[in-house]
Amino acid sequence: xxxxxxxxxxxxxxxxxxxxxxxxxxxxxxxxxxxxxxxxxxxxxxxxxxxxxxxxxxxxxxxxxxxxxxxxxxxxxxxxxxxxxxxxxxxxxxxxxxxxxxxxxxxxxxxxxxxxxxxxxxxxxxxxxxxxxxxxxxxxxxxxxxxxxxxxxxxxxxxxxxxxxxxxxxxxxxxxxxxxxxxxxxxxxxxxxxxxxxxxxxxxxxxxxxxxxxxxxxxxxxxxxxxxxxxxxxxxxxxxxxxxxxxxxxxxxxxxxxxxxxxxxxxxxxxxxxxxxxxxxxxxxxxxxxxxx
Amino acid sequence: xxxxxxxxxxxxxxxxxxxxxxxxxxxxxxxxxxxxxxxxxxxxxxxxxxxxxxxxxxxxxxxxxxxxxxxxxxxxxxxxxxxxxxxxxxxxxxxxxxxxxxxxxxxxxxxxxxxxxxxxxxxxxxxxxxxxxxxxxxxxxxxxxxxxxxxxxxxxxxxxxxxxxxxxxxxxxxxxxxxxxxxxxxxxxxxxxxxxxxxxxxxxxxxxxxxxxxxxxxxxxxxxxxxxxxxxxxxxxxxxxxxxxxxxxxxxxxxxxxxxxxxxxxxxxxxxxxxxxxxxxxxxxxxxxxxxxxxxxxxxxxxxxxxxxxxxxxxxxxxxxxxxxxxxxxxxxxxxxxxxxxxxxxxxxxxxxxxxxxxxxxxxxxxxxxxxxxxxxxxxxxxxxxxxxxxxxxxxxxxxxxxxxxxxxxxxxxxxxxxxxxxxxxxxxxxxxxxx
Lengths: 293, 436
Fold this sequence. Notes:
The complex is a heterodimer of chains A (293) and B (436). Chain A is of the alpha/beta class and 293 residues long. Chain A has helices at 3-7, 12-24, 42-60, 90-101, 122-128, 136-145, 157-160, 177-184, 197-200, 208-214, 230-233, 262-286, and strands spanning 64-66, 77-81, 108-112, 131-133, 149-152, 189-195, 205-206, 220-221, 242-245. Helix content of chain A is 40%, strand content 12%. Chain B has 436 residues and is of the alpha/beta class.
């Protein structure tokens, strides 16, 4: 439609100036509220954090964290990680790691597929514990305007539906959308390699007909699912977790509008993927035992 | 360019009436003319009502004869419960076309067109962004008739803007409005004792206070805003947060699958949830309001404060035994009286009449101008009128009319009997009764 032509903002430089002005106009924080504008609920998140996540982090997975100082103290940053496990525990563990180990703990927003917004139950729960739909505009607002930490899994569901035999082999990193989002948000990319999640909930097969029947994004067979029912959905094996935060990749020194340069975007995406893959091989190679590290 | 001669379409709507009331207080505005099929529902001092349907030849004659420089269109139907689908289409699509045609004649002096639209333009879908900005297009084609009409109406407005680069065209996309005088499906929905939700969904909601809506329209008349602007209050609440603030229970009565059928069942039981609202109950919607704020507008109320104001009014409404509002219980348009007041040399005119002058009018018309931005204060959560602080009650009662005040006085006497409250009621009553 013609509107966007009329609301278009002329030259590139004016847009940047304007975006900075707009940052000052974000709604103020109302201290009486326990829910953020994104739907994140202090109460629900705190409850789950104190019970389930705390137990998993310290006792069950015995998480070991390296390089936490690579997460910046302030400003936006895009944390990019490999993704695995049928109901992936890696997201919660990375969020917890920033909360537990960092000198200036900050909430991390994790991007989730649009599918979850339309599925009853998930739609209610995920925003409350920090989930945000993986829309480029959302990531850009969080990174640029609100200067928050955002966690993305560029592999998406291709990572979590892969079978046990393919473990620690990264899938395609989307179409490089995460790099574009970081560039537009003028935020660094912090690559993360997670070892352990693949063994915590290995998927041995994907059952297509059952997936269609339930309307879920996939229907795997894991050691506990589906024969143990709903409890089996969170039936994690006690694998040892190792989380390594890698040195950040700056995106604000790549020129005026680097996101327009598709070749550059693809190169950066490829480099980030290669870095994580390399690190994964290194960590898995040095590992003596799946259960004790 | 400053607006001097203003034409308001949709004068009988809440927004048209409020805007006219605001503009006629300003001596710099020479003329305010309202066109509508129905008479205005609020008391107006110098705004003239012309009974015209959406006929472009008649409106064109008015625009030319009165040398109108600013046209504000508040006619758009943004809620499909208020009228039938066919009439909404006539009004939204055909009416907008006619109005724009009337503004664009060779002899037209129109320099500015303000078009009141709705965030329904963006729709409400699973893969929406968390905040819509003005330059975003909806990801899918409109699903409901109402949304289709709004998109079509906006298309003709933007077409008009392209053909007339010398005319300032402002499109204001409002979030769902809340206010005691609005009659929308959300107002009815939130007035229920138990708020039905869709099982497994807790959508994000952004509202805008009815006072802010009127103020935004006025802002657009006083300033030159070219382009599209979102207008929604600061802050986005989860629906459960809204019900908590209102002191109500929510219940997941609507099933996640077959929601439309269940809603059809509810509509037989008397609660109509239109399809565009069902989408909002599922996915929620919020708009980025910063572009409008960058033009200097500041909202009087956040979304949370808007909901809390609604709660106060809901509480009072239970004692007054009828839902106040429906806008105009205390005022009826009488053509002869209005003609007399505007034209007769016998009426004593004073400069910029202050409050008491309104009582000159026979029939005891009430001071209709609703109060402005009340002082902000932190939330307490008492569910009953009895627990409202005396100051809160006094602050609220200024917008009441005489029968309401009498009812309130009887109630207060029978219960708490707080002296400060009684005294405040008496002083308001005596002011209303005494002839000027």
